[in-house]
Amino acid sequence: MRITKNRRVIVMVRIKDIAEKCGVSTASVSYVIHGRTDKVSPAVREKIEKEIASSGYVSNQSAMSLVSRSSGLIGVAVANGQDKKNILSDPYFGAFFAYLESEFRKNDKYILIILNQKSDEILKDAMRWNLDGLILCNHHKDVMVDISSQYLKPVVTIDASFVYEYNKLVQIFVDDYNGGYITGKFLASAGHRNVAMIDDTDYEADRHRWRGFRKAFEDAGIPIDEKSHFIIDIQKEEMTEGLNRMYPLMLEKTAIFCVSDFYALQVINFLQSKGVRVPEDISVSGYDNINYSTICTPKITTVSQDIEKKAKYAVDSMLRMIEGKEVEHNIKMPVELVIRESTRAL
Predict the structure, then answer these.
(1) Residue 107, Ramachandran bin (φ over 0: left; ψ between -120 and 50: alpha; else beta)
(2) Is 181 in contact with 215 (CB distance < 8 Å)?
(3) Alpha carbons 143 and 86: distance in angstroms, whole number
């Protein structure tokens, strides 16, 4: 369908029409429309996307939504630039999305998860589905700024904070600097001097955690340098490959702070597979306080954040902006350290 919003005219543009124009099958067009671009070649995809754009095609569902001005859909765009690991396998995101879906459903709204890291593709999906708003998770700051400056509907960003000039934007984030700081302070007070942090990205939240962690040791008179910030680029290597590469460096440490509980679990399993005892030989701590942190052996010392409350803040902020109500534009959530079995004093 092609929509002319000002006149409320709907002109039929069928998938069959696009296929004939491009000289491809209707199946190929359908694959591109529904995001299954791995089923077609890059050249065919580009040809189809150009024809879709020029024809103004949107799906029947989106066409009806445009006429009614509301689709009832909220886009949840999460960066998934990790070719070797789908981010939805991370228990933190699984829990967060489940809470979002439950809260929106109570208000007759539904979520559409968009796995992409490019702002133009996210905006294209937002237009295609006539989304009522966007929630941006795990994106670099420049992507969030770019989308927020172009998208005219409400935007909620998760785990990022930046200076902005957009009144339809709410930023929800935990106090990651303090999360890193209280972890570092605890480990320093437990006698640890040779420590490291394991990370996989250069995202805003992770940088704050590293800065807080490092500052705590500096305040304790134990300076640590950037060499103790271990980064595994999981776009280029599997987690196990990265851990094997850094294993000799890990053995020099008495404690390792992981950027998430998900990574702490993997680090503990990796070390145990090498005959390294946790925490007797190396202490390991995590972040997020996911359910898995209490059902593994040893139970993980972690920084706890309230994932359910974060989701509720996101839903409430989005609904209030959709209704034109006042909102709090910057919501910083507290964290606390939960000490369990994976760390010990020297």
Answers:
(1) alpha
(2) yes
(3) 20
- Stretch (H or E) spanning 135: strand 133-137
User: What is the chain's alpha carbon radius of gyration, rounded to the nearest angstrom?
Assistant: 23
Q: Minimum mean pLDDT among 8-17, 291-300, 305-314, 325-334: which range?
A: 8-17
Cβ–Cβ < 8 Å for 239, 266: yes
Which DSSP string corresponds to 256-311?
Answer: EEESSHHHHHHHHHHHHHTT--TTTT-EEEEEE--GGGGTSSSPPEEEE--HHHHH
- 257, 199 in Cβ contact below 8 A? no
* Number of other residues whose CB lies within 10 A of the CB of residue 328: 12
Q: Compute the distance between CA of residue 233 and CA of residue 229 in angstroms, rounded to an integer.
A: 13
Structure tokens, 336: 């606390």
- Could you tell me the fold of the domain covering 1-69? 434 Repressor (Amino-terminal Domain) (1.10.260)
Residue 9's identity, in one-letter code, is V
Range(s) of the chain covered by CATH 1.10.260.40: 1-69
Tell me the HSE value of 263 on the side-chain side, using a 13 A CA sphere: 25
User: Which CATH topology does 176-305 take?
Assistant: Rossmann fold (3.40.50)
Give 251's contacts (C-beta < 8 A, 6+ positions apart). Answer: 276, 282
Q: pLDDT by residue (tens digit) across 22-68?
A: 999 888 887 777 666 778 888 888 888 788 777 766 555 554 444 44
Beta partners for residue 158, in sequence order:
137, 172
Residue range 194-218: mean pLDDT, rounded: 91
Q: How far apart are CA 176 and CA 67, in angstroms?
A: 42
Report DSSP state, residue 160: -
